Amino acid sequence: MFDAAILILDSTVRLSTPLLLVCLAGLYSERAGVIDIGLEGKLLAGAFAAAAAAAVFGSPWIGLAAAVGVSIALALLHGLACITFRGNQIVSGVAINFLAAGLTALLGQAWFSQGGRTPALGPEQRFGELSLPLAQTLADVPVLGGIWSELISGHSILVYLAFAMAPITWWTLGRTRFGLRLRAVGENPAAVDTAGISVARMRYLAVACCGALCGAAGAYLSTAQSAGFIKDMSAGKGFIALAALIFAKWRPIPAMFACLLFGFLDAAAIRLQGVSLPVIGSAPVELIQALPYLLTVVLLAGFIGAARPPRAGGVPYVKER
Amino acid sequence: MNAQLPRWVDLGLIPLLNLAAALLVAGLVVALIGQSPLEAVRLIVQGAFGYGEGVGFTLFYATNFIFTGLAVAVAFHAGLFNIGGEGQAYVGGLGVGLACLALDRWLPWWLIAPVAALAGAAFGAAWAFLPAWFQARRGSHIVITTIMFNFLAASLMVYLLVNVLKVEGAMAPESRTFEQAGRLPRLDWLMSALGYEQGGAPLNVSFLLALAACVFVWALIWRTRLGYEIRTFGANPTAALYAGIDPVRVTVITMLISGGLAGLMALNPVMGDQNRIFLDLAGGAGFVGIAVALMGRAHPLGVLLAAVLFGALYQGGAELAFEMPQITRDMVVVIQGLVVLFAGGLEFMFRPLVARLLAPFLRREEG
């Protein structure tokens, strides 16, 4: 029973990681007043760039750099459309999703001719599992060994990065000048403008942060969790992360817990596939997989505490003349 | 910034410029892959319009996109972004399919078709109801809720297909195939009247229904009291409220019409082509509808033209993928993204430029 619980929690951590990175990415963008429906697309593009670069150059770090670069480029395109040209942020995000879905599949086939996949990556081209100190020594100790050696140790560096990013984001947004300004352009851009700070510059910085984190999440998908890119491998994770962001009411630490919850649901659904449970019979896997969306809708409808988005979200800033 | 431009510029020139920009970038992508963009265009046009079967497929795909494009367009007029056309069409397919499964052994097709159409529209509208209600009454954002409802629709349909509708003993998660009476007639007579041979293309009478839907939406938006309310609400919700227009009523009714149009789309693949309920029956058409509505400037005629364009891209893209294996059908998704980007996200990029270039030629109305 304990071992099974550790196994499920272990895969919860693995499945939560991309959600958490993308969720925090969305948090930077949306707290600055730029709504981002294009998280899914940036995640997918990042995954493709990471796998393609890692396959060609043989290093996961070059893959990560490529993923971050490509994802930031898409984020800046989103910024160009909705910060500079004041276009509709939702429409622009939808465009990013289409572009990423189409280009990754198209370029994947054109460059590697494997039906949209990238070549399978060898161990040295992927982010390996880090063994934390004492993991070997403690492995046989009951309870503690399971928790330390199985659950906490033995993940790729991106997992630790993701979980470190939650408190870092909390600190950056809540305790630094940059964070204060970023939140201010999302709530009251006119006030920031009056203080002599460029609203556009702050928003571009925010979407760049968003792109960088989405890129890291993409690299995790294709070069840590799997060994290569598969067409449409993000499979809606960007939207689940968006749901988690709303679920967490745009706050970093609750975002981490929301992502862990949604990751846990995913892990449970995989674990329960085809398992027969007492009383209810076969496990309702579809229901468990639909729960993140269902919970978000219920939350948005205001039945469990209202979710209040940043006030200036979705509104392009027009400087008065 | 938003200088008034004549209608022919706003509705004709600017959409064409956006399309040209999108195709230009798409051409660059083709060149990047190492193929000739001009040859690609030739293959697409040849595949989409060069022979009867190709035209049939083009119009078959266009039928889907007319419905989903109209669905998005109607919501646009009320200032609502219905991103959930995909889910509404998927659930609409359940309505269409259930009507066919229930009636195909008893009634002829011309009696089943209206029932199936109504069921599809009703199911699609029902799937749009809750997001609309939550937007109007509980203040949740319709974009997010309709996205969530797309995923909920997918989960629901997978569950139903695997556990309820699947034929006993069969592997594929799909319903039984309808009897002959559960199939819509093809349009061979129309195609041969136009001098084409329809061949294997599944073009069927739902195309005519799509044309009728265009007329319906035009009349609704510009010739009825409800349409006036929808447009007023979309242009200025505060003024609409002041004028006595009930925002909850307009939001909900608009979304029901939008969802109903998306649900009607399912008639084409379910009753017109595959003759069963199957996985992913909307096949992304709900999302294409966003590009179609944006390009068509939310006008039924524009939607019709844009839908035919995308139908041609889908059909021509398949031929292109056959002739140039380096360029898969995903090229269409890229073009779709570029169209949404240029016609939607970057819509204000060309406008000031066009306004400045045309300024000397246009009589300025205001001093």
How would you sum up this structure, described in words?
The complex is a heterodimer of chains A (321) and B (367). Chain A has 321 residues and is an all-alpha fold. Chain A has a single domain, classed as ABC transporter involved in vitamin B12 uptake, BtuC (Orthogonal Bundle). Chain A is built from 13 helices and 2 strands. Chain A has a two-stranded antiparallel sheet. In chain A, α1 crosses α11. The longest helix of chain A is centred in the first third of the chain and has 30 residues, at 2-31. Chain A is globular. The termini of chain A are far apart. The mean pLDDT of chain A is 87. Chain B is mainly alpha-helical and 367 residues long. Chain B has a domain at 62-291. Helices cover 74% and strands 0% of the residues of chain B. In chain B, α5 (109-138) packs antiparallel against α11 (247-265) and α13 (285-295) packs parallel to α15. The longest helix of chain B is centred in the middle third of the chain and has 30 residues, at 109-138. The model of chain B has no long low-confidence stretch (mean pLDDT 89). The chains are: A mainly alpha (321), B mainly alpha (367). Chains A and B meet through α3, α4, α11 and α13 of A and α5, α6, α13, α15 and α16 of B.
